[in-house]
């Protein structure tokens, strides 16, 4: 049975003027709406206590398991406002499916896909006025789940908190849609076979931060990891998937296994043939990419994810030097793909894939 998320309205929502000021320049991940969706799970009773409640802090016991053993997962998705004022989600059941795959890997309880989508719908309906309009703005949605039991033994929690928060968003990168520089991590890896690389769990992102800081010291906004065994095969970036455009109009991306199964990554595979491109999922060695940049066999590189959308990569860097991608500007194919995806998400082209999910 699907959970219901009835609204318990906030007694102190932000004023229209405050909200409008935030929506005029939302940034990424710093402002939150007036409500959040919640539900709890116990080993004894399963899921319950579901509602949309005023946004606010959790009271957390110092012994809460997630603080010690990081049993936690999350998702990232967006609500888009179309030109006629309607509000839509992009493939929400894909996120629901991935949330449950992450839950299984992290020994957390699954949440029925209908309940997951219902929680998102209920929150977006409650805070609909927070969905920005215009440009590439959206309402970023962050469903997450964590071990909330106060217990220090190492085992899967008997009590779990589910929550969805919402945050009006502009561009993920502070420079807007400009080609970014990527640091090639030689020292650190993010995922090993049999590990948690394919799960969307906080620990993967925590493990990327020291490499991300190294990237920042070298003027780069993201880090690219290679595999943990041979240090040879391209894995993914700190917080997004990666694609390479070849001179044969192929869109090459690392095969699934230790990487996150990105919803945007998957959409690009489906959209590619419509743009005359051939999607290829396979192992890609970093050496092949560096050689390809020199010879011209690799023409463009881009990052993709819900937050990043499709972001051109202008250069790769490591201790030995800088490898420019094409002329360092956004490539033609990257730009066409980006436009095709955004046109779909913002309702400017027909949704031939049945990906858009109307909320109101
Ligand atoms: C997303 O693209 O939604 C992500 O989760 C990436 C990052 C912000 C963690």
SSE blueprint and pairings:
Elements: E1 6-7, H1 16-24, E2 35-42, E3 46-54, H2 65-69, E4 72-74, E5 77-81, E6 87-90, H3 92-105, H4 113-126, E7 138-147, E8 159-169, E9 180-184, H5 202-217, E10 222-226, E11 234-237, E12 241-246, E13 250-254, H6 263-271, E14 278-282, H7 286-295, E15 298-305, E16 309-318, E17 321-324, H8 332-345, E18 356-358
Parallel strand pairs: 1-3, 9-10, 9-16, 13-14
Antiparallel strand pairs: 2-3, 2-8, 4-7, 5-6, 5-7, 6-18, 7-8, 10-11, 12-13, 12-15, 15-16, 16-17
The structure holds 2-OXO-4-methylpentanoic acid (COI).
The site of 2-OXO-4-methylpentanoic acid has 6 residues, from loops.
Give a structural overview.
The protein has 360 residues and is α+β, with helices and mostly antiparallel strands. The chain folds into two domains: 164 residues, D-amino Acid Aminotransferase, Chain A, domain 1 (2-Layer Sandwich); 166 residues, D-amino Acid Aminotransferase, Chain A, domain 2 (Alpha-Beta Barrel), CATH 3.20.10. 25% of the residues lie in helices and 30% in strands. The chain is built from eight helices and 18 strands. The strands form two sheets. Strands 1, 2, 3, 4, 5, 6, 7, 8 and 18 form a nine-stranded mixed sheet that branches. Strands 9, 10, 11, 12, 13, 14, 15, 16 and 17 form a nine-stranded mixed sheet that branches. Strand 9, helix 5 and strand 10 form a beta-alpha-beta unit. Helix 3 packs across helix 4. The radius of gyration is 21 Å and the shape is globular. The model has no long low-confidence stretch (mean pLDDT 96). The site of 2-OXO-4-methylpentanoic acid has 6 residues, from loops. It is an enzyme of class 2 (transferase). Pfam families: Aminotran_4 (PF01063). GO terms for molecular function: L-isoleucine-2-oxoglutarate transaminase activity; L-leucine-2-oxoglutarate transaminase activity; L-valine-2-oxoglutarate transaminase activity. Belongs to the class-IV pyridoxal-phosphate-dependent aminotransferase family. InterPro entries: Aminotrans_IV, Aminotrans_IV_CS, Aminotransferase-like, B_amino_transII, BCAT-like_C, BCAT-like_N, BCAT_family.
